[in-house]
Amino acid sequence: MRPEESVVFTDLDDGSGVLLHLDNKFYYSLNESGCFMWQVIEEKEELKEESLIKELCENFEVEAEAAASDVKEFVDDLAKEGLIKIIE
Asked: Fewest beta carbons less than 10 Å away: which of 1, 37, 59, 80?
């Protein structure tokens, strides 16, 4: 997966963040873990869900099963809103 080119991310002082989709002018708010996952997605060229799960487990106190569920939901939501492209 990779971010859509028309999406801008802003990290806020309280640990949360905001995504702005420039095509539809919608804002999307992210909590701390959402910001972390978005930043990982931006940093990696073509990230797979497994890599994002591993990063989440290494940086937050979360078990692999819970991380996998959270990542799947996050990625599905981002894809549904057109914020990322899923690369097979």
From this structure: 80
